[in-house]
Amino acid sequence: MQFGKTTITGVFSEQKSQTKSVTAQGGGTIQDFEITKINLPNIEFRVLCSTGTYIRSLVHDFGQALGVGAYMSGLRRTKIGTFNVEDAIQWEALEKEINALLEG
Predict the structure, then answer these.
(1) In this structure, what CATH number is given to the domain that contains residue 65?
(2) How far apart are CA 64 and CA 48, in angstroms?
(3) pTM of the full predicted structure?
(4) What's the structural domain count of the chain?
């Protein structure tokens, strides 16, 4: 299956896509793709991908393949390299630390 800059081969189901080989032009790869919620016309999904993968282009191309328009209403990056959102400091805690440093 060809989607713009990303080539996807594998089996798609309504809730889970198991892919055998996924390579995006520019070196990006998709290791995992999962549809997590369908509430038409909205579809939520999770993608585990490498640098160089264009998620906005992928969404656009899915819409084109389905014969409908598609756009992203949100994007949340939960991991990049060794940094994980679960390890992130909350803004309020960071603000407290900065204020303490400035005062002290």
Answers:
(1) 3.30.70
(2) 22
(3) 0.62
(4) 1
Residue type, 85: V
For residue 84, being part of any structural domain is answered with no
User: How far is Cα 88 from Cα 104, in angstroms, rounded to an integer?
Assistant: 24
Examine residue 73 and state whether it is found in any structural domain, yes or no: yes
What are 13-68's pLDDT values in tens digits? 333 444 454 555 455 788 888 999 999 889 999 999 888 888 888 888 888 888 99
Tokens of 70: 């598609």
- State how far the Cα of 71 lies from the Cα of 68, in Å rounded to an integer: 10
Is the backbone peptide bond immediately before 41 cis, with ω within 30 degrees of 0? yes
Helices (H) and strands (E) in the chain, counts: 2, 7
Complete DSSP assignment for 20-57 = EEEEETTS-BEEEEEEEEEETTEEEEEEEE-TT--HHH
d(CA 30, CA 49): 4
- Report CA Rg, the chain: 18
